[in-house]
Amino acid sequence: MERPNWAPGDIDLERPSVARVYDYLLGGAHNFAADRAVAQKTLEMMPDVRTGALQHRAFLRRAVRYLLGRGVRQFLDLGSGIPTVGNVHEIAQAADPAAKVVYVDLDSVAVAHSRSLLDGNERVRVLQADVRDPATVFASPEVNDLLDLNEPIAVLMVAVLHFVSDDEDPQGILAGYRDRLAPGSFLALSQAGFEAHEVTPEIRAARSVYERSVTRTTLRNSAEFTRLFAGFDLVEPGVVRLPQWHAEAPDDEGIAGRAFPGFCAVGRKAWR
Ligand SMILES: C[S@@+](CC[C@H](N)C(=O)[O-])C[C@H]1O[C@@H](n2cnc3c(N)ncnc32)[C@H](O)[C@@H]1O
Known about the structure:
CATH superfamily: Vaccinia Virus protein VP39
Helix content: 25-40%
Bound molecules: S-adenosylmethionine
Distance between the termini: 56 Å
Number of strands: 8
Shape: globular
C-alpha cells in the first residue's frame, strides 16, 4: 500500500488507530483500509456509532462557543484527533484572532496533519504527548510558550476518557490538570457511556468488535461521569446527553435525533 505524505513512517498502516477510525466515522479522509474495516464492522453492529461521533464533535463546537462567551481565550485540547471540520482554533480565532490553542494527541497522523495545517498560525501549537501525563504536558514548550497559566484556560477532553480505564486513575489525571489551572478555568468533557439498564446486545457486540481490533474502552454511567468533575462546579445544564447540552445553538441539525449513549458537561474551577 502506498504511504500518503500525511502518514509518518512510524505508523503501521495495517493496524487500526483510534484517531483514524474516528476520522472515518466523521467522514474524514485520513484513514486506511484497516481503519475503515473496523469502523464498518462496528457500524453493522451499532449504526448509531456514527451519530455518536458527530454528536461529540458538535458538543465540542458548542462548548468552545460557550467558553468564548464566558471570556476564555486559551484552549488546551487533549486528545484533539485528526483535524476535521470545525476545529477548536477555527471557532476560537473566528471569534477572536488572539485566541490561543494547544492541541495534544498521541497519534502520529493526528499530530502530523495538525502541524501541516497549522504551519504559520502563531497562536496554535501541536504537542505529541500522552494526555494521561499532565506533568509532561505542562512542562512542554508548546504549553509554556503559548499559554499563560495565570489566566483562565479551557481544558477540553472530548470523546477521550472512554480510552482511560479506572485503573489508570482518571480522577488523579484530571486533578493533575485542575491543580495547575487558574481559578475561573473550565473543563469540558464528553465520553461514551450508558446507565446500566441501557446496555443492549448490539452495544456489547459493537464494543467487542472495536476492542478486539483497536483498543480497550471504559464506558461510564452518569454518576461515574459526574465524579470526574471533582473540584469543578458544573455549569448549566450539568451532566446530560450530548445533543442536550446547550441545544439551542443551531449546530446539531440532522444529528440531534435519538440521543446516542454518551454524556457531556462543562465545569468551572472554583475560586477557593
Ligand atoms: C475519538 S477521538 C476524539 C477526537 C476529538 N477530541 C474530537 O472530539 O473530535 C480520540 C482521540 O484521543 C486520542 N487519544 C486517546 N488516548 C490518548 C492518550 N492517552 N494521549 C493522547 N491522545 C489520546 C486519540 O489518538 C484520538 O485522536
